[in-house]
Amino acid sequence: MKETLYLVIPCYNEEAVLNETAKRLLAKINSMIEIDIIKDDSKILFVNDGSKDKTWSIIETLHNENKIFSGVNLSRNKGHQNALLAGLMTAKDYADMTISLDADLQDDIDVIDKFVEEYYNGSDVVYGVRSSRATDTFFKRTTALGFYKFMNVLGADVMYNHADYRLMSKRALDGLNQFREVNLFLRGLVPLIGYKYSVVEYERHERFAGESKYPLKKMIAFALDGITSLSIKPIRIITGLGFFIFTISFVALIYSIIVKLIGKASIGWTSLTVSIWMIGGIQLLSLGVIGEYVGKIYNETKQRPRFIIADKLIDNDKKDR
Ligand code: UDP
Ligand code: MG
Q1: How is the chain split into domains, by residue range?
Q2: pTM, whole model, 2 decimals?
Q3: Pocket of ligand 1 (CB under 6 A)
Q4: Which atom of ligand 1 is nearest the CA belonging to 106?
Q5: CA geometry: angle 262, 268, 273, nearest 5 deg
Q6: Ligand 1 pocket check: which of 137, 140, 212, 213 to mutate, most ligand atoms within 8 Å of Cβ?
Q7: Which ligand gives the minimal distance to the CA of 211?
Q8: What are the angstrom distances between the C-alpha of 263 and each of 253, 266, 271, 321?
Q9: Which superfamily does 5-211+305-313 belong to?
Q10: 119-139, pLDDT tens digit by residue?
Q11: Model confidence pLDDT, tens digit, residues 42-101
């Protein structure tokens, strides 16, 4: 039952961690090959996401030293999600299963065995879910919690405390390949593929070197992108708001007529100013939200490539299927 596993690791400016990461992953994969739970043509696939530092040359050196290290070099920086997709779509031609993880090894690699076990038990997707956030700063913990709450309220169902540490089978990857969207939010897409899934809990460590590429600003952008990519609930909320204001305006209309009829109509400057500002504000905000969707449609209709692969270093035969 032994099958081929590919670890897929997107890397952007990771020269500070890459050699150490490679060492730890190599030890892990070798131990798994030794106890015969994965095939010996399994690989560690780094995706260089247009790094400005020596990341790609480190990957090349690793590949020259040991062919278990493979690499995909993107033509430019395309962001974590696209880089990950590039790696997964490359790996699916060679592997039976893939596990995606970050270059900083914040995700505990000792649970990889459990992922694979769940795969052999028949799961096509195995989600790595953080059991606690003890190592995160209070700030990161609260913003992350807010992130999931916010997402779910606005209709984007994502697995709680799951980032992109997950196993996917070849079949699940073929499914993912049929989602052609340019606005990529993998965490939201993977559940839509379907198939049997399971969950493995793990502890998340601190980044051992280098720095996070996800500051708060990027996290908020990522959350908003995720919501508008997965759900049209924000537009529905605007519709609801429109109904609500319409109802109020109706009451205001009747009130104004009555006041007029009994001859008590006064200048009414305050109420007028407030309503102009408030309704103007709501309209602009609503336009902005709808504009966000129009922008998405614009990007989707162009069907631009999600990534372009410049170089590929993989010493393996493509599986014929
Ligand atoms: N990453 C990438 N392209 C980018 C930004 C990040 O491939 O444009 C990679 C990065 O090298 C890392 C992973 O995405 O392997 C997650 O980034 P990071 O660890 O900085 O995020 P955090 O864990 O702080 O959320
Ligand atoms: Mg990280």
Answers
A1: 5-211+305-313, 233-302
A2: 0.80
A3: 10-12, 14, 49, 77, 79-80, 83, 102-104, 106, 212-214
A4: 23
A5: 150
A6: 213
A7: 1
A8: 15, 9, 18, 84
A9: Spore Coat Polysaccharide Biosynthesis Protein SpsA; Chain A (3.90.550.10)
A10: 999 999 999 998 876 666 777
A11: 999 999 999 999 999 999 999 999 999 999 999 999 999 999 999 999 999 999 999 999
